[in-house]
Amino acid sequence: MSARRRVDPRRPFVITPLGRKRYALGQGALPGSHAAQTPTVSRDKPSRLQEPADGCIMAVAHSERGVLTPEARQAVAAAALLAGPRCAVLLVVFGPLSESAAPCGADRVIVLHDAGSFRPDAELRILDALRERHRPVHIVMADDTVTDGDLGRRLAAHHSLSIATHVVELTAGTATVHQRHRSVYARRALPEVILLDPDCVDTRLPFQGRGEISDQAPEADPATRYTDHGVTTVPASRLALEEADFIVSAGNGVHDLDSFHALADVLGAAVGASRVAVDDGRFTRAQQVGATGTTVASSVYIALGISGAVQHLQGIKDCRHVIAVNTDASAPMIKRADLSIIDDAQAVMRALAAEVRAARGTDEGAGQ
Known about the structure:
The chain is 24% helix and 22% strand. It contains 8 helices and 16 strands. It is elongated and about 70 Å long.
């Protein structure tokens, strides 16, 4: 009988910077474990605001499909950590919100349900009205380039407010920002508008907000100088490999190219290849994955018939989940993969494509 201790896959684990799960034997829940990453309302957590508020810090965010993004949660948590004992956290959400904002630290929430299209000038007018009404000490937002970050910069420029962008560290009175590709850091007093870089704040707070929904939202102004043409869906095969979140890659063991491309299409995945497959002329040089090609960081990487040369493994070191299909159980790619299938790539491709089509046909039929 083997003396090796087996790990219960349901035990708490930590996600490493490479996206891998790391378990700890003989321990309970770990700080930073998967179970602790999702904010939940706990009855054991006290409310941060115990006294009537005489001021507020405003957090502004855009929702996605009715929920707050991780960056938006961090902005709310930062506002809660900066707020004093008599300072409320006012969360302004552009778009619908179907979850409680109390675990993030929000005390009052104003939800603007009809903010669906890109209207930065109309949103600026709404934010101006809320700022004039509530007089926040600081306004905290995520520093992205399309929604929150753009709105924060417009607000600061419109009113000549002090602003700190790319904030990577906060204290009670200072903000630390980075410049020149993180080669230079600067510290300054807290400005009126704070734009946070991702992962600047830990959302696991020792307290919770009140999460009260407020009906003090100003009337929406439909006038805008912008026209929103919607979102254009681009086939995954046209995406650059470094931008793709799902990649299906072929190696020397893939000969049925029709089945391979059919699988990529049905999965909606970008197409990659090993150097051997590229040198043979089956794929273009732009589709080569590896240290001598393109380094990728997708959430899912399916390696079909790829043995796993050192250069190729270096190119996928940042991929979160790697699935390998190969007839050689001792191939380096099999050792690297999170899930391995020891079988012929051609057979697996056809079977997987058929299963996906059947599942989607079942789902479509059930929804009718």
